[in-house]
Amino acid sequence: MNKNSYNIMALAPNTSNKRETVCIFGTGDFGRALGHKLIQSGYPVVFGSRSTQTSSLIPKDAEVLSHAEAAQKAAIIIIAIQRQHYSFLTSLAEILRGKVLVDVSNNLKINQYPESNAEYLAQLVPGTKVVKAFNTVSAWALQSGTLDASRQVFVCGDDMEAKQMVMDIVRALGLTPLDQGSLLAAQEIENYPLQLFPMWKFPILLSLGLAAFFFFYSLIRDVIYPYVYESKDFSFFIAISIPNRICPIVALILLALVYLPGVLAAIIQLYRGTKYSRFPDWLDKWMLCRKQLGLVALAFAFLHVLYTLVIPIRSFSRWRTSNQILSLALKNETEPLNTAHAWLSDSYLALGILGFSLFFLLGITSLPSVSNNVNWREFRFVQSKLGYLTLIFCTAHTLVYGGNRFLSPSSYRWYLPNAYMLSLIVPCIVLVVKFVLIFPCLDKPLTRIRQGWERNPQYPE
Ligand code: NAP
């Protein structure tokens, strides 16, 4: 569920001083936490419970009555009870008629029941106005006041007036109601708290898959090959050298995969001559998780930076440097400065620094607190123009690292090229296709298509 696509109702809170009494069925964790918050916000609260005995856990300004008595005192009744216990509500049907019932319930599994809990409640007690709300807010957050992460309250219901009353309460509690439409949306709202990183699954699995592939690839080339042919034990490469090879490779491929769907979408639109036909589902899903792909890529790039920082203090690096100095001293030779090599090395580092800085900037601008403060054009400038520039810098960084090693036969062990060469395939494809797409003969029709022009309109103008 994409939170950003919801319609945030920015209406002013109900400012009248007199708050209507709110009834809560159930004195469990959630009922008590919500009751406490409602009382703090100035609402008289009455609890409907199986036991009318009050306890120290129940907010002291609240009344505890039987369900029937409590229901008669309020127009809005919040059902803070698990769905499996709803059946007793049928006996209160007459008292509840015409009242607003707020279903806050969650399930243990996604799509656990054929219909949503809110729809079930509406069927069970006909003549009531059922509104789904509050299920994404936890009792703990309500009680501790740490509502920063869960300030949004998804609300849905078939009765506009009832929904509006509930949204007024949500606002009065300092939360943000997000109108999701009719009660048909309740199932999706109930599934929402049960989703496990929905947008992150693909990027994380993909990055783990790539990391595992390149780990074994590098193990074969850099550890097993020298062991078999030169009897050298480079198994310690597993700790730093191989991870430091995998991280930039995965980061670069993932960064290219952020921009590949945009390029594919452009080709599809050019081919179809319209923007009004749906992309294939896989492309839609891929587009939706580009931000997450980019952030996972940034995490790998960050690890690469950390691994690179420790290279000078590695025992292997110190041994290699001192060995080189020693062998030159023994031969009584000095090595003249290779300016071409110095240029290559400095350019490689400079491109890496520039690429990582822009990458970091992209990551920061994707944070909601930052992206909310830039307009659409600024956001597109950073994510698209600077994004491509980042891809160019990072690809160039890798190309310069390779230098002319592409041509050296020693780069191919068991016919396997160096892993960084494989990492260049996707970025180079994306950059070449993007370069072709900015030619006016393709860019102009694409811009017109994106403005609504159709090559073969279905209906004559
Ligand atoms: P809870 O602590 O188990 O409380 C449920 C309450 O339901 C009980 O205290 C009891 O109140 C009442 N109840 C239990 N069995 C009943 C029965 N057979 N007949 C009538 N009433 C019965 O659960 P909770 O954590 O407060 O959750 C309540 C609802 O809020 C659930 O639907 C849950 O999915 C939803 N929710 C909870 C949270 C959370 O963070 N806990 C967050 C969002 C939504 P009395 O003893 O007063 O009758």
From TrEMBL:
Keywords: Copper, Endosome, FAD, Flavoprotein, Ion transport, Iron, Iron transport, Membrane, Metal-binding, Oxidoreductase, Transmembrane, Transmembrane helix, Transport. The keyword Oxidoreductase applies. Its cofactor is heme b; FAD. It is found in: Endosome membrane. GO terms for biological process: copper ion import; iron ion transport. The chain crosses the membrane at residues 202-220, 249-271, 292-313, 347-365, 386-407, 419-442. One of its GO terms (cellular component) is endosome membrane. Residues 249-394 form the Ferric oxidoreductase domain. GO terms for molecular function: cupric reductase (NADH) activity; ferric-chelate reductase (NADPH) activity; metal ion binding. It comes from the Eukaryota. It is a multi-pass membrane protein. It catalyses: 2 Fe(2+) + NADP(+) + H(+) = 2 Fe(3+) + NADPH; 2 Cu(+) + NADP(+) + H(+) = 2 Cu(2+) + NADPH. The keyword Signal does not apply. Pfam families: F420_oxidored (PF03807), Ferric_reduct (PF01794). Its main location: membrane. Residues 21-107 form the Pyrroline-5-carboxylate reductase catalytic N-terminal domain. Belongs to the STEAP family. This is STEA4 Metalloreductase. The gene is Steap4.
